[in-house]
Amino acid sequence: MDYAALxxxxxxxxxxxxxxxxxxAMNDRAIETFAGGGGDRLLGTSVFxxxxxxxxxxxxxxxxxxxxxxxxxxxxxxRKLIYQAPWMENGxxxxxxxxxxxxxxxxxxxxxxxxxxxx
Length: 119
What we know:
Blueprint: H1 3-8, E1 13-18, E2 23-26, H2 28-33, H3 55-65, E3 69-75, E4 78-89, E5 92-103
Antiparallel strand pairs: 1-2, 1-5, 3-4, 4-5
């Protein structure tokens, strides 16, 4: 299966870097999202050059520790979920994958297992 093809047209931005922070892959949405910073010219460059402090220091720690970082942001009235997590290659920690999804203004939230909250 061609995993790159799966993400190419995915509506969320997907960016992948190695353990040193070198950007290895970006899908179409990530290239579009980061067009002002270079778009596809960011491939092969350091993810640290794309972030100001204190984000740079936090990214270094995440990469070193191989842990997940999840948060939401709002920029220009658009809310996004940012999910940064380690990815593995042949069972070994290989770097980070960042998924950025636009969140709708109103979004249902369901608590599963609770009979009263089923759609």
